[in-house]
From TrEMBL:
It is found in: Peroxisome. Residues 302-478 form the 3-hydroxyacyl-CoA dehydrogenase NAD binding domain. Monomer. GO terms for biological process: fatty acid beta-oxidation. Keywords: Fatty acid metabolism, Isomerase, Lipid degradation, Lipid metabolism, Lyase, Multifunctional enzyme, NAD, Oxidoreductase, Peroxisome. This is 3-hydroxyacyl-CoA dehydrogenase. Pathway: Lipid metabolism; fatty acid beta-oxidation.
């Protein structure tokens, strides 16, 4: 064996050189890896005893892409195209042996190899779009030449990881092997290529698949039309599409140049910076500074859920999906039956879409034990309470649970705003109590706020985070405060939205500004969807807020065909002249005069107080880091990932500008805009949220 450099070595096995990259964690194409491949290929080419070269990786995966940490830094070492040229132009066959994931630049390296062999469990993809990028090392030019334009368009704009068997069907992989025998099979394949004197196949020379799409712009037009909603607001999908168009219409080298130029443009833009930031933020969120890997994990085999309503049922589905037996408790047979029926109906809908099979439904339902007896939770290792959002009710439930649950069980509340410490105090074991704030619909939304109480034990926290990962959530550890992180910040936006409409903006103006900013919908459309009557009681209603007035008029949201908007049978929303009048009358009654509110003011007044609240949350230590807040907002509230999250967004605007604007609004509108001390400090120090460690 020859060591090429610290991350690459070369062995020659009876005429086949095996070049192994070993650069944990994911063999990303760092300067060292690029240099190692280049030198290794050159050495193998120069060695007369070598007839073919196998490129393989050690560790858990084939090359998972360019090294994202190098982006934006001055280039060092050989460039990726230089490495690729050495492989593609090698006078001996080069075979990629893929396991784990061949992603981005990793797949682009495999695409310049003359053949590709893959372990059956491997996956291939060009996920650059998820980083706000496009494959910048020939991926957009080579992929359609192998798999055709339609499949290439789908792959580059979705970033999907295609399983090796499907990749083989597309022609992307030449041979599938068992996972354990990848290396041996790749070497045998290399020998076969040599023995049969197979040609040095260069993907760049293939033309038949793209010829089929040449002169047919309608393919691209139709693709854009069909995916307009999915791509809304993002730059990268369109750039990816244009590159595939270039692959079809331009000679290969011209296409490469076009791809390169567009890659650089995206790389230097704000969206990709935000999406790359988010990539690391969504990994960092799992790191808990004071809870190390030596903290014991508690065994969780049985899960109990109290409450079979929308929340409880949705939460139960998460655990059923992951194979946990779940006991679900209700107080009446009717509510229990309804809850179980809803879970089944949800699964049936998913099956109709082809995402699970009928057998999956039965397997999951068989894990569910519905009961009216809370005592049945005595065996549960984790119990999640999802009852009515009322402190007295929750305390009562936890008091009873305390007497039933076995020692060592985790007792969790799904409260979205209440004081977890007060709930914990209703038990004799506050160290076992934690908040698990799922978002609705709980079986769909990715976010979980894990709420750490003052006395919550570290093993309870670590176990909860690990469980979150197992059920496919993205979890952020937060502290106890009203609304925790997400809802506490949301309350700021809701308050301003309500104030804005009394000052002269209309609900659809506010919604449009936030929609254009990139949210899936604005606060008023959101209220209509959720129902304006959440927490509203007719007997206590006193026409004191717009919401009350609308509820009194039976405009309770989409479900009644009217809320802030009017809805047709297909639930399409139209601005409501009735509501406009109601607002004007209500504002006039309060002695307000209507004024023109600019779009800029709407945006700033909705978003800046949220940023300010985020700063207070950090100041109080209720979130571990600014990027956790961003992860919460992207996953729980539809914050557009191409703007990173509220704290990242504030950094991109400039904290001095945010502070100055808050001060201006404080003068006009009062203490709601009083800047957080942390914000003032950061500005004084010329630092950003991103600089906080
Ligand atoms: C590209 O290739 C551009 C080219 O077209 C053009 C170039 C000219 N770089 O996710 P995990 C780190 S763009 C640097 O927890 P998993 C990650 O931060 C790239 N670091 O593991 C984490 O670090 P830490 C296109 C990277 O098993 C650790 O590895 N490729 C990179 O759940 C483990 O990661 C992609 O977008 C990277 N490229 O999932 C693929 N990737 O331990 C991005 C990971 O310090 N990567 N790290 O927190 C992934 O999708 C997943 O990491 C993967 C493994 C599926 C590979």
């Amino acid at each position: 064996m020859t060591t090429i450099n610290p991350v690459t070595d070369l062995t020659v096995d009876a005429g086949v050189a095996v070049l192994t990259i070993d650069s944990p964690p994911v063999n990303a194409l760092s300067a060292n890896v690029r240099a190692g491949i280049l030198a290794g290929v050159r050495q193998a080419v120069a060695d007369d005893a070598v007839k073919a070269i196998v490129l393989i990786c050690a560790g858990k995966t084939f090359i998972a892409g360019a090294d994202i940490t190098e982006f934006g830094k001055p280039p060092t070492g050989p460039s990726l195209p230089e490495v690729q040229a050495a492989i593609e132009d090698a006078p001996k066959p080069v075979i990629a042996a893929i396991h784990g994931t061949a992603l981005g630049g990793g797949l682009e390296v495999a695409l310049v190899c003359h053949y590709r062999v893959a372990a059956r469990s491997a996956k291939c993809g060009l996920p650059e779009v998820n980083l706000g990028l496009l494959p910048g090392a020939g991926g957009t030019q080579r992929l359609p030449r192998i798999v055709g334009v339609e499949k290439a368009l789908e792959m580059v704009t979705s970033g999907t990881h295609v399983p090796a068997p499907a990749a083989a069907e597309m022609g992307l992989v030449d041979l599938l092997t068992d996972d354990a025998s990848l290396r041996a099979d790749a070497i045998a394949f290399a020998r076969q290529v040599v023995a049969e004197a197979r040609p040095l196949r260069k993907v760049r020379d293939l033309d038949d698949k793209i010829a089929a799409a040449r002169g047919k712009p309608e393919i691209f037009a139709e693709f854009r039309r069909a995916n307009a909603r999915r791509f809304r607001g993002f730059d990268a999908p369109e750039y990816n599409i244009r590159c595939i168009e270039a692959a079809v219409e331009l000679p290969f080298d011209e296409g490469l140049k076009r791809e390169r130029a567009m890659f650089v443009e995206l790389l230097n833009g704000n969206q990709s910076a935000a999406q790359r930031y988010y990539f690391f933020a969504s990994r960092q969120v799992w790191q808990l500074p004071d809870i190390g890997a030596d903290t014991p994990l508690l065994p969780v085999k049985q899960v109990g859920i109290i409450g079979a309503g929308t929340m409880g049922g949705g939460i139960a589905m998460n655990f059923l999906n992951a194979g946990y037996p779940v006991t679900i408790v209700e107080t009446s047979q009717q509510a229990l039956d309804r809850g179980v029926r809803t879970i089944r109906a949800n699964y049936e809908n998913t099956a109709k879409k082809g995402r699970i099979t009928a057998a999956d439904i039965e397997r999951r339902m068989a894990l569910l034990t519905p009961t009216l007896q809370m005592e049945r939770l005595a065996d549960a290792d984790l119990v999640i309470e999802a009852v009515f959002e009322n402190m007295d009710v929750k305390k009562d439930v936890f008091g009873r649970l305390d007497r039933i649950a076995k020692p060592g069980a985790i007792l969790a509340t799904n409260t979205s705003a209440l004081d977890v410490d007060e709930i914990a105090a209703a038990t004799s074991r506050p160290e076992a109590v934690i908040g698990l704030h799922f978002f609705s619909p709980a079986n769909v939304m990715k976010l979980l706020e894990v709420v750490r109480g003052a006395k919550t034990a570290k093993p309870v926290i670590r176990t909860s985070m690990e469980l979150a990962r197992k059920i496919g959530k993205i979890a952020a550890l937060v502290g106890v405060c009203p609304g925790f992180v997400g809802n506490r910040m949301l309350a700021q936006r809701q308050r301003e939205a309500q104030k804005l409409v009394l000052e002269g903006a209309l609900p659809w103006d506010v919604d449009r500004v936030l929609y254009d900013f990139g949210f899936p919908m604005g606060p008023f459309a959101m209220s209509d969807l959720a129902g304006l009557d959440l927490g509203w009681v007719r007997e206590k209603s006193s026409s004191s807020t717009l919401r009350e007035i609308l509820c009194e008029m039976d405009r309770r949201g989409q479900k009644t065909g009217a809320g802030y908007y009017d809805y047709d049978e297909k639930r399409n929303a139209r601005p409501s002249p009735v509501v406009e009048q109601v607002i004007r009358d209500f504002a006039a009654k309060q002695g307000r005069t209507s004024r023109v509110v600019s779009e800029q003011e709407i945006l700033e007044r909705c978003i800046y107080p949220m940023i300010n609240e985020g700063a207070k949350i950090l100041e109080e230590g209720k979130a571990i880091r600014a990027s956790d807040i961003d992860v919460i907002w992207v996953n729980g509230y539809g914050w557009p990932v191409y703007r990173g999250g509220p704290m990242f967004y504030a950094d991109t605007i400039g904290l001095d500008k945010v502070l100055e604007t808050l001060r201006r609004y404080e003068e006009s509108f009062g203490a709601d805009f009083k800047p957080a001390g942390l914000l003032e400090d950061l500005v004084a120090q010329g630092r950003k949220f991103g600089d906080l460690k």
